[in-house]
Specification:
Structural class: alpha/beta
Largest sheet: 5 strands, mixed
Shape: globular
Family: Belongs to the RNase HII family.
Oligomer: single chain
Order of helices and strands: EEHEHHEEHHH
Subcellular location: Cytoplasm
Distance between the termini: 47 Å
GO molecular function: manganese ion binding; RNA binding; RNA-DNA hybrid ribonuclease activity
CATH superfamily of one domain: Ribonuclease H-like superfamily/Ribonuclease H
Function: Endonuclease that specifically degrades the RNA of RNA-DNA hybrids.
Low-confidence stretches: none
EC number: 3.1.26.4
Length: 199
Amino acid sequence: MLADHYHSPNEIGTDEAGRGCLAGPVTAAALILPEGFHHEILNDSKKLSESKRKLLRPYIEKHALGFAVAHIYPKKIDEINILNASILAMHQAIDRVGLDTEFIIVDGNKFKPYKKIPHACIIKGDGKYKSIAAASVLAKTYRDAYMEELHLEYPMYHWDRNKGYPTKDHREAIRTYGLTRYHRLSFRQLPEQLKLGLY
C-alpha cells in the first residue's frame, strides 16, 4: 500500500530512469500530488507493464498540482558521471515544477541538498510513497518516448525495444555498428572492452 506523504502535504517526490543504460539520457521527474490522490494500479514503474505506465501518465499529469521532467544527455553524463547526472536531472525537474515546497522525498540513497529545502532519501521509495511512484512513471514514460524517437534515426540498435539498456541485441548492434553520438562513452559498452571509437 503506497503512502500519501512522508513529511508534508506540500512535498515534492522525485525519481529518475535510465541510470543503467548504455545510450540516451538519464531522465528525472518531480511532482506534487494533491491530498487524497489515488489510482489503483499506481506502483513503482519497474513493476508495471508498459501499457499500464502509458495509462497512468495522463492521469498523473492531469491530477498533479505541478510536475516536470528533465533529461541529462550523454555528453554531460560522461563529464560529471551518472550519479551526479541523476541528481542534476532531479534538481532540474524540481526547478521546473514551479511551486513552493517544504520537503523533498527522493528514491534511493543519494541526493545533494536542493537550495535550503530539507529532503529525505528513501530506499525503494517508489514502492512506498505515491509521489515517488508517480514520478517514477513519468520519468520512465518520458525517457521511453525519447528513446523511441532516437530509434527512428538508428533503428539497428533496437532502442524501441531495449530503450538503451545493455540487452543482448543492443550489445550485438554495438559490436556490428560501433557507437553513436547517443552512447555514453564513459560506460563499459561491451564486456570484453572498455572503450570503442565513436562511430
